[in-house]
Amino acid sequence: MVKFLASNENNLKRLREILKVLSKYEFGYLIEKIKLKHNIPFIGKSYQYDSLEELDESTPERLRLVLQELGPTFIKLGQTLSTRPDLVGRRIATEFTKLQDDNPPVSFDSIKQVIEHELKSPINEIFETFDVEPLGSASIGQVHRAMLKTGEEVAVKVRKPGVENVIKNDLAIMEFLAKRVDSYVPQLKIYNVPGIVDEFKRSIFKEIDYENEALNLKRFRNNFKDDATVHVPAVYSKYSSLKVITMELVVGTKISEVTEADGFDLKLIAERGAISYFKQVVENGFFHADPHPSNIYILKRNVVCYIDFGMMGIIDEQFKTELAELMIYLINNDVSGMISQLTYMGMIDENVDTRSLRYDLTDMMFKYYGTELNEVHGGMNELINIMRKYHIFMPRELVLLARGIGMVEETGQKLDPTFNAVQVGKPVIKKVVKKKFSPLTFADYLKKNVIEMEHILKNIPLSLTKTLYKLEEGEISIKIEHEGLEKITNKISVALILSALLIGSSMIMTTDNGVYLIKFPFLGFLGFGVSAVLAVILVISIIKDRGLSK
User: Residue limits of the Protein kinase domain (predicted)?
Assistant: First the structure.
């Protein structure tokens, strides 16, 4: 049997279960290609496809069904891949957005044990009331409504017992299968399956770390502390830990369920949602990476409230500005500017066919935008597909951002059919670009880099001294390579000999010694004669070389 899993009977059993599900949904050929068919004898020829090339339009759906049936870890993998159309393509990414993470809740007794172990106190000493039935249950955790002893109503999110071990075991099997796919299936090598699993591994361990989510929530709340149009739930750190997070209970309506009949201003909500998202990206550099309608609530007075901060995107100052500049080119329908900006950002190198890329981007602009950019969602997806086609490197944050903007625009248009995300976000983007060229930004740059500049200035004399010392000791050698240098050197040599002959012959002509020819020294005549011949040869050689070079 497979040595990798032979030492763990549970993993071996789980592997068999995974292969059965793959076979059930007609991926038996893949099992045979990765050389596991003969090791897993229960798999017969129950599949209808004989090669990967025959996979049809149903492939994305069948992949989704495989992940759905395999449970929590694989569902999370699919949800992560739904944010990465650059890796798996738009069709598969879109299909994976349908993956549901609703799971039956675990017993209240199990949840109670986790809370009391993590918070080191009996549950009735922490909470005045605690609802036995959860508000919701996902694969990793479930949420219960409660009230603190101090009177605040809270939502308590608790990681389900044993989840971490299940994830670790499933990840071990994923890594094993990914390596075999990469080794035995050349057609799938372009997807870098081991790299996908590795990225997912980092992502899911962040998501099950509720301390990390609490920090994300606090940072996000601080970014919008002065914005009355956005509300972010408070975190109660005293009652939070690695497996428990206690936060303010949000009482509102899902953004997908708000109606004018209930007193909501749909146009205003769409505008506020878009402005808040563009602020997250280009002002704060810290954005919600999964802003689907279930994670956005609307409170009284049309206030936008984000929840679930397990998946966040982070952008540094430089990338924020570069991204804002790219968006300006996109808004202005400037293809040349986009290509220049992508090159400046290090995404396009000399291996990219920029001429063909320019044609594709121009077609994209004409197809989606015409004279006005008013459908970011379609355009962003198409832009990612084009970049994927040309194997252009895309940072994870850029892909998450494209997906996020697409979700915001789609939600906004459902609220208000006339909604234009770009027109709403344009002032925010331009503000960031304008800030880049302000004197205060330059002064701030000097302030941040003053120590480094001081180090450089201090080291200049020492570096110069070391260089001059090495030069003096002959420790520095300079190697120059030049095509045709030998020919040039020969011509210079002839020119120097010619010069020497002319000078020498001229000096001999002024003397009174030696043999004379027509009242002038014979050696002088001879020198001038040889000089004339060399001069003619040199001129002919130069003219010949120029003719060849044209």
Answer: 129-441
Return the number of other C-beta atoms located less than 10 Å from residue 534's C-beta: 17
For residue 536, give both structure tokens.
């003619």
pLDDT category of residue 483 using cuts at 50, 70 and 90:
low
How much is the average pLDDT of 491-502? 65
Closest CA to 313 of 394, 400, 215: 400
Cross-strand partners of 154: 146, 248
Nearest to 77 by CA among 205, 186, 179, 165: 205
Strands 136-137 and 520-521, sheet pairing: unpaired
Distance CA 376, CA 382 (A): 10
* Residues near 390 by beta carbon (within 8 Å), at least 6 away in sequence: 352, 353, 356, 357, 360
Tell me the C-alpha distance between 139 and 333, whole Å.
43
**Domain residue limits, the chain:** 108-164+207-312, 486-548
* Cα–Cα dist 550/547, whole Å: 6
Burial 231-262 (b: 16+ CB within 10 A, else e): bbbebbeebbbebbbbbbbeebeebeebeeee
Q: Which CATH architecture has domain 108-164+207-312?
A: Orthogonal Bundle (1.10)
Give the predicted TM-score (pTM) of the model: 0.70
Give the model confidence (pLDDT) of 182-202 as tens digits.
Answer: 888 887 777 788 888 888 898
Burial class (CB in 10 A: 0-12, 13-18, 19+), 299: middle
